[in-house]
Amino acid sequence: MNEYPALVTNSFGLFVLATLIVSGCGPVHAGKRPGGRRESPRAPAQDGVIQGCRQAAAEIRHLSYTGPVHLEFREQEQLETAVGNHVERLAAIPGWDILEAVLLEFGLIPNGFDLRTFWKSLQSEQMAGYFSPRRNAIVVIEKPDPSRSSNPGTLAPEAGHLDQTDLDALRKAMLVHEFVHGLQFQNLGALNDFRRELADTAFLDDALMARKALLEGDATFVATQYLLGVDQDLSCLLGVGKRIAEMQAEARSCWNSVLVSGPLVFRDRFLFPYLDGMDFVARLLREHGWDLVNAAYQWPPVSTEQILHPSRYLEGDLPMSVTMGDLSCLRDLGYRVLSSGRWGELGVRTIVANARCRECAGVAAAGWGGDRFVVLENGTERLVVWGIAWDSAAGADEFTRAWRAGDAVPNAFPPAYSLAREGNLTLLVWGTYPDLDNLSTTLCDGVEVKTFPPSPPPFVPSMPE
User: Fold this and answer.
1) Residues 117-128 as b or e (16 or more Cβ within 10 Å = b)
2) What pLDDT score does 204 carry?
3) Which residues does the chain have with pLDDT short of 70?
4) CA–CA separation, 98 vs 112, rounded Å?
5) To pair with 8 at 20 to 30 A between CA atoms, which of 113, 124, 300, 394?
6) How does strand 381-390 pair with strand 425-431?
7) 157-194: string of b/e by CB count within 10 Å (b at 16+)?
8) Residue by residue, what is the 3-state secondary structure of the chain?
């Protein structure tokens, strides 16, 4: 049976944890367990260390195991072979080509970018361990070979970035992270619904990204607290995800990584669940404790906006529905819809930062209320239509200013476009069409925006931003 598409998590969190160590963000307690006892450095494969990580995950997370979580060891070559086979299977899926087309038409990958090769390299680099819900087992590399990977989880001390104590702590933290996934699976009904949804070709989906942020942010929070020491004030972890994100520039000089040096969209979407998800969980935990975090699995966040702004999650601020109007004028010319979807606040931020205005991307995206993009094609020609509804006119203003600021940026993408505005709605079009200005105005008039009443989770009061 092929199990790889069912994998829920791998070691992208290791990049987060390794950045934490390399950048000196707080003390690292190699093997420090609840109660303050410090373990002597030992190989992570030893039974005592494994049991210590298992216990630490349960004690920090305040959950109990309802059954065993098995630990299975694989040779690094075995995991790399599984990754390669998985990428080859993806290459045969129609959705893979559509994903590539969407990324290209939004300027997120360059022309000629070999997505299959990049994806294989990225997954092979980052794979050091994962939790398999099907077998209720953690699978880890038994003997990491640093010559085969730039993954911080497989680096040797000779690499000069992490000493042996740091490496032992990092590998233990990875085990703690994966044991938390076992606890989620056993106690919270988590992971069952994520097998299909977190398949690689679905990684642009805004709602699924939000749910993954809860899942991975929870496990990363526990692993981070394990690294920093459980006796530290919880408030020390508030915002640590954003602080690690700010350290990425420094991390680039620490090791040659496919993830760090690749296109921004992959960095953003692979690290978001760990970094922003960790901040989301820390905020819920500070305000209402683990009971709220547990309850969130039954009432999961529905947008990356709710992850970036936890108060909007608790207020039940739902995304607006944005529906394109009549596209018959394009169909009459031979265009057909290739793909459509919702970028969400995270996607807007990435697109603006990538080729329009990096320094103002966060502000430009913060007023997001909902969006809908459509990529159309006519033979070899393509056209993008992207409508974004904003919470206020001020939000639409901020986005418009940031987008137009890109006009002065060399090699800005798209090089030609038309932006129409109607109240709190902006509509962008670019691609092959004789009159983009007329098209944007016509389509903007036909966009339907529907708002929904707040639907706060039933178990907690609202909290201030």
Assistant:
1) ebbbbbbbbbbb
2) 85
3) 1-46, 90-91, 93-94, 126-128, 143-164, 166-167, 191-202, 230-237, 240-241, 244-256, 460-465
4) 15
5) 113
6) antiparallel
7) eeeebbeeebbbbbbbbbbbbbbbbbbbbbbbebbeeb
8) CCCHHHCCECCHHHHHHHHHHHCCCCCCCCCECCCCCECCCCCCCCHHHHHHHHHHHHHHHCCCCCCCCEEEEECHHHHHHHHHHHHHHHHCCHHHHHHHHHHHHCCCCCCCCCHHHHHHHHHHHHCCEEEECCCCEEEEECCCCHHHCCCHHHCCHHHCCCCHHHHHHHHHHHHHHHHHHHHHHHHCCCCCCHHHHCCHHHCCCHHHHHHHHHHHHHHHHHHHHHHHCCCCCHHHHCCHHHHHHHCHHHHHCCCCCHHHHCCHHHHHHHHHHHHHHHHHHHHHHHHHCHHHHHHHCCCCCCCHHHHHCHHHHHHCCCCCEEECCCCHHHHCCCCEEEEEECCHHHHHHHHHHHHCCHHHHHHHHCCEEEEEEEEEEECCEEEEEEEEEECCHHHHHHHHHHHHHHHHCCCCCCCCCEEEEECCEEEEEEECCCCHHHHHHHHHHHCEEECCCCCCCCCCCCCCC
Chain position carrying tokens 């990875």: 174
Average pLDDT across the chain, whole number: 80
Distance, CA of 449 to CA of 428 (rounded, Å):
15
d(CA 64, CA 307): 26
Residue 127: closest CA among 16, 216, 220, 12: 12
Task: Please report how many Cα atoms fall inside a 13 Å half-sphere around the Cα of residue 160, on the Cβ side.
Answer: 4
> pTM of the full predicted structure?
0.86
Q: What pairing do the DSSP bridges indicate for beta strands 70-74 and 137-141?
A: parallel
| Cβ proximity of 293 and 305 under 8 Å | no
- CA pair distance 410, 408, nearest whole angstrom: 6
Measured CA to CA, the distance from residue 336 to residue 375 in angstroms comes to 9
Q: Please name the residues in contact with 415: beta carbons below 8 A apart, sequence gap of 6 or more.
A: none
Whether residue 231 contacts residue 69, with contact meaning beta carbons closer than 8 Å, is answered with no
Nearest Cα to Cα of residue 221 among 276, 145, 171, 291: 276
